[in-house]
């Protein structure tokens, strides 16, 4: 979740609605409940059946639509919206979605959550043939493919194009008379459908966005599906049948809202189960259990219940954002300024504390938390991570693809324990992670229908452009492990 | 705490530091951890021993100091700061503190948390004698009294003036060479002293503001004390010895941060105790216990532990603020738009739920929460309030002084239960509240050294200007109760 | 006029209206045409006969009222407004007018253009008696005096107070039922009265503000007058009869809009006359005459007509404001960056140019202009100043009171000519200045009813607090002149 | 010029520099002096020889670069910039230039002033072949053509592409190692080259932009030329030799700055000549001559000199912008609120006034001016227009292409005189316009090397996509004229 002390970042959330008056206002509400998926840009494209209308800008949703008039001009009963996370340097306005394309034969808007693994090679092929891209985003590629195939007609062209892109993706498209949703063949990114009391259809990255607009959950979009919504209603089609479920496990561990339900599993409940199983796998001799707010509170309460220790509020999160330029004198800075988290002295003083966190990325925050708790008087600090160790990059839309900084890729658990200053450290096993989530519709899909490649390096798709980089990282890892022996 | 779904509002937080380089930056940090005490205005006055420098404006701290230069120009090693809550209509820039007064014989800055009960009559007397006020705040009165008494010298004049004002107050004053703190004779508002590693003294409304600047807690300011800090160090003086401890119980129930320690009691721990005692007084036949985030989570976990039911996350708070102008079509609005809170369907569905809240003011939020939980599938909703029923106004700095809307002042517990649609409703008793807080330095003060007038109408001070209003409200209440018989 | 390349600054403009619906909107329009008198702050106070409503902030009028709602909330049929210029360091929000004072027995708003010469001593007396000032502005003093005298009743108290303040001043006051205007005994600052078609009265610093609201000019406020406007109409009273007209000549030379009429004299016409008389006093052998836009264009055209040379556009003013932080590399900066003015090469190339300017303050701009014209190919540059040389400070509201940088106070005309690099330099004589303006109602007032102290050191009032400073400056000047001999 | 009371709008200005440190700061300065050519968007792309860096946004230059950091990040010694005017509805950020395109084989930035007459058909052809446009601007077309031709190599591909586009255009392109400028075969839009003292080359829409960066004028870019600037210096090439000079006469009449020199003619001088010739063609029995500020002042002074009447300042322009939402009550609005212009009563009262304006578009402003002058007391108002009557649309970059509102296309001179309430009205003849400008390098080009199609319907290029629209307008006009007979 956003404003967390972690540096894992989801790359976007999408929302669409068809058939509801004030569709742009409904989309605003939906995006409000998806804001945790991206805080660096937001936009909405609406249509009244005649034209498409757009507003987008950098920043939080509330800033982008700070002026009421900007929302009012997005008229019509259909709309799609997007919230965007972006890595530094690419936060250009040109990359803020939904993209809106004007063609002589019509307008199309596009919103995308995910990452294509063959974007670089596809883009090069397209550019060789004369294509001109304005964004640096891989999302624009689909539109170029679609136009290359346009002689086939919209839906066949779209199906063909969706088979040309590889990776994890949830696409929403809006034309003046259709709202279209498509999900990758592994269903890596979440996407679900709801229906409002007035019959309007809603599509959203998470079910929490259905709740805020009082839409009833209808179904999850399934791998390889193409959903077409128009005046005649909703049609469920598909662009491929070569599919296999591999939902991103990080959605359950960290990204999604606790009140969302993904493929039948409530996120909070999954996290609580992770905490329970972690307690079974890695109990600790301690007095109290605390969680790192907010994303780890579910797991912490599960851990506490399972092990039979009191669950306490040992860390408090500051809900206000401080200006980043505030840097008091060196002495103060060195002792560590805690703008986001505070330890509750009255709770942890003199106690052996189990602190449950959902993940460790670079280890710097964990180190600060341990230090903070000890300064507040904790006699022992036992760190328990309610997910397996991150060792491999994500290529499907989470911003850890380029990070050589994954601490677990470079150090053993014992080494990490020393680095962060904990009295003990344990991670959840991959098997327990799968068991904690326990997807009802997993069938016989590997890994219980989840993508757990971040932990074991086994990716559900070909890696295409990333193949070389992945192999290099794998080799380095093996070499490191060999060296240890 | 701020951004809560409640409409109780603290009227300010104060912070001061003397003897630390970049004092204004340290004050910014301190105010950052006091931001929950006031979000409608903020300011800092600093001094380098020669002049006083000021910056203040409406809005959150991060907005007021959005431009780095505004903080940089506040040079010097001493500063005071203020965060302000204000009632609608008075949110003029003229009322944003600290006030800075320029006199021919020196400059004085003033920051105030609290409310004076004789402000109206004092102001009238002063105006009759020719005084000109620029703010509508009662805080300015002290400065006029101080100047009327100025022939006595600063400290004697201040002591005399502090005896002329009645009510609950924590004042900070800054001259070019002194930082002065004063607390009302009942210690109604919290105020504590800390010390940084470099010897600098810090004064703050809550100890959480000491923590963020890594100052060690020294002591609470005691009722009637006058603390004078200058180059020679700290001197503890007093302006009256006619004192009796009566700390505002609402600080423990609702306002203060859970990590703060007030008169030796950790706020989180006190809240957890309130939950425990509430479970003893008012157990419920249920499956799970949930709290209203964030201020009621401590009490909810105490309730759950005591009663032996699972403590679950049944409500999630949205950490992003939505634009208030978003008002979708009537149908949607009527069904209630939940921008701030969401129920976790996966948790509450089919369950008998105890929802613990810290207080009920007007009842509208409680009604929404019950409805939201039932819509999410809860089979029963039992509301448990971890404080006694609010029946009387606060005259010491909490914004419920003018509220005829206190639901508990007009309805019985049974009536309220019906109004909010709960299956059962119970409040904590005053006795249990006092027991839960259990102030170590209460001595033989009435009500365990707490102000509990909001619940029982027994105020620790004379009410002066409010006497008539109070009597009227009391009479109305009695009449109502009589009528019931 | 503002955004000019000069560093002379008027300290404010005032506007008031009584009896017109949407009075605050009318006041906005009036202030729009007075914006040249102050760009650093603006505000309006309105009344509906029951309460007073205020909005004010730092910055240009269009920024202060950027949000339409801020104007809409200023309801009622009466209002006063203010635009403010301020010297660096005092640009605090506390100093932005109109001030609004809330007393137990009523509210009063105050707007002021001018400067009091006994402000320091009055303020000291008041503070000795316990008065508390919030602004550093001298304008607040009148309110303190008024309240000291309040037992007399509003109008008598005001008359007494106006006799206690000395200097140049135009005051507007607004209570819930009265709009009051007062002008100093010498009428130094301009102030005039108009009437709208619907009967509403308007009071403004300049007649150009009457024009924009389509009010007909009624009369100038005369020295020592007190104008009281209420539901019964307008009453012309006075607070003193010991008066003598001494209108600030700088209003005609530089500050006022060319379309304004002050005491019967159109400002553009006066300036054109200054140019004509300057041509008679100081002709030049040249090919063309140009003016420094915008304030010197009238004088330049008069000079050209009188001398019979073509009047050309040799300098162009950029109407857009550049960011001040733009500082290209040193080489470029040294050659002088011309963000505000550009020479017209096609006009001046190979020509002997007379450039007419209205004044020289520090000389730096004149030096740049001469250099710019020569770089553009002018063969000779003859500078003609359409006013006498500034040698003495203004104590009545123009921001040159503290300037030791007045070039003409330190150097002779010949020396200045050398310093600015001109081929010749002449100023207008004081006698010609008086003749050019030629006030119709001057009677037998000295200096034709004008204040020309900036040129000859003869002030129309006692100088009170400034006496010592003035004498010192006079002595230094005499010493310098002696030294020359 | 911008902020004028006219509704003619130039569609952009361009600036480029190669070989100067802090190239983006220099570009900012250049754009500052081109701001009158477009106020609705601005941007700069720079390069350090390795990468291209971009910042652009809607609004004035000073707003777009309000944050110093936005300019600082545009590092390198080469840059191009753009200021944009846009018609309502298309003011999307996607249309703000320079465009920056990222290709796998390099980056290219593009800035454009002008309009292509075959944009619609070219775009359709490109889209048929799969091209995806993000902007609605015709400028993007050149990039698509360039990429279609890229197998030829950059310069040959560019030459071929420039022959495919028709109309009036000045293009600047920046790659990491080249700055390229191209001008249409008729040289309709102005573009000139300068050189800084350090050897850096500068290209700009107007010579006024060379002046502010202290670059010496080198030459005008000639029709059909392709200028290539790189580390080796400047190379003058061409993409066609089928050229004929037809400079837009509106640049001289209205758009360009008076200090600019276009094809050897100073704009102010040309305007003054227009005024002189207008006086010969259409003298008036009057007392004074005034101009409409600012763009008509040159012509007015020429008229006055030629006819021997005093040139006066009878209209004053307000240099501050008022909020557009200010709409006082109906009565006031009907009498006409003059936020931008004011008549100088002291000048025009009782006088027969000649008011010189540069053009009439819709006639509404002229009507207001006449009314304003009469209300201020003018006894007669004779309107003289220093250009021929606008009867035909511009297809080369001036925003009158879609205007059926051209008053002179629908009414005779006599009718217009009545509509605007003038006592007499005359326009300049086309022959005198040509004579007034008198281009030195016109050779035997028709119309003295100028485009005067707006007056006589004879366009210098084929009209392609606009042919049908033009013919229709011509037919309507003829019909109207026939009907009059």
Automatic annotation (TrEMBL), chains A, B, C, D:
Its EC number is 2.4.2.14. Transmembrane segments: none annotated. It catalyses: 5-phospho-beta-D-ribosylamine + L-glutamate + diphosphate = 5-phospho-alpha-D-ribose 1-diphosphate + L-glutamine + H2O. Mg(2+) binds at residues 295, 357-358. SUPFAM superfamilies: N-terminal nucleophile aminohydrolases (Ntn hydrolases), PRTase-like. PROSITE patterns: GATASE_TYPE_2 (PS51278). Binds 1 Mg(2+) ion per subunit. The active site is at 12 (nucleophile). GO terms for biological process: 'de novo' IMP biosynthetic process; purine nucleobase biosynthetic process. Pathway: Purine metabolism; IMP biosynthesis via de novo pathway; N(1)-(5-phospho-D-ribosyl)glycinamide from 5-phospho-alpha-D-ribose 1-diphosphate: step 1/2. Keywords: Glutamine amidotransferase, Glycosyltransferase, Magnesium, Metal-binding, Purine biosynthesis, Transferase. Its cofactor is Mg(2+). GO terms for molecular function: amidophosphoribosyltransferase activity; magnesium ion binding. Residues 12-232 form the Glutamine amidotransferase type-2 domain. Pfam families: GATase_6, Pribosyltran. Catalyzes the formation of phosphoribosylamine from phosphoribosylpyrophosphate (PRPP) and glutamine. In the C-terminal section; belongs to the purine/pyrimidine phosphoribosyltransferase family. This is Amidophosphoribosyltransferase. It comes from Lactobacillus corticis.
């Amino acid at each position: 979740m956003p404003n967390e002390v972690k540096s894992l970042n989801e790359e976007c959330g999408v929302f669409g609605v068809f058939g509801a008056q004030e569709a742009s206002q409904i989309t605003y509400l939906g995006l409000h409940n998806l804001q945790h998926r991206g805080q660096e840009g937001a936009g909405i494209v609406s249509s009244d059946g005649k034209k498409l209308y757009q507003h987008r800008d950098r920043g939080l949703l509330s800033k982008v639509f700070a002026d009421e008039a900007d929302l009012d001009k997005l008229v019509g009963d259909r709309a799609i919206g997007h919230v965007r996370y972006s890595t530094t340097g690419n936060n250009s306005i040109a990359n803020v979605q939904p993209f809106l394309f004007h063609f002589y034969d019509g307008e199309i808007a596009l919103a995308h959550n995910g990452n294509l693994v063959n974007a670089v090679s596809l883009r090069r092929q397209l550019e060789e043939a004369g294509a001109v891209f304005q964004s640096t985003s891989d999302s624009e590629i689909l539109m170029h493919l679609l136009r290359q195939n346009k002689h086939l007609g919209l839906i066949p062209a779209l199906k063909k194009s969706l088979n040309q892109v590889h990776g994890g993706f949830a696409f929403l498209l809006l034309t003046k008379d259709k709202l279209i949703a498509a999900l990758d063949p592994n269903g890596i990114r979440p996407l679900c459908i709801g229906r409002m009391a007035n019959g309007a259809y809603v599509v959203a990255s998470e079910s929490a966005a259905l709740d805020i607009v009082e839409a009833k959950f209808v179904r999850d979009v399934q791998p390889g599906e193409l959903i077409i919504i128009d005046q005649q209603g909703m049609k469920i089609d598909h662009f491929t049948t070569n599919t296999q479920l591999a939902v991103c496990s990080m959605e359950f561990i960290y990204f999604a809202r606790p009140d969302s339900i993904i493929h039948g599993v409530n996120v909070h409940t999954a996290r609580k189960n992770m905490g329970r199983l972690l307690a079974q796998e890695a109990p600790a001799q301690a007095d109290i259990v605390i969680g790192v707010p907010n994303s780890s509170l579910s797991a912490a309460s599960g851990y506490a219940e399972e092990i039979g220790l009191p669950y306490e509020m040992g860390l408090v999160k500051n809900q206000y954002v401080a200006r980043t330029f505030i840097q008091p004198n060196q002495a103060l800075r060195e002792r560590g300024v805690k703008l986001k988290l505070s330890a509750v002295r009255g709770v942890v003083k003199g106690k052996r504390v189990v602190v449950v966190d959902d993940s460790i990325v670079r280890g710097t925050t964990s180190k600060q938390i341990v230090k903070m708790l000890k300064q507040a008087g904790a006699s022992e600090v036992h760190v328990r991570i309610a997910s397996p160790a991150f060792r491999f990059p994500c290529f499907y839309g989470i911003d850890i693809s380029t990070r050589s900084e994954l601490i677990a890729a470079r150090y053993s658990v014992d080494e990490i324990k020393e680095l962060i200053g904990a009295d003990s450290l344990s991670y959840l096993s991959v098997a327990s992670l799968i068991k904690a989530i326990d997807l009802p519709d997993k069938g016989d899909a590997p890994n219980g229908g989840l993508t757990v490649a971040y932990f074991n390096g086994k990716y559900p798709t070909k890696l295409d452009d990333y193949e070389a980089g992945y192999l290099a990282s794998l080799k380095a890892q093996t070499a490191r492990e060999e060296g240890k022996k």
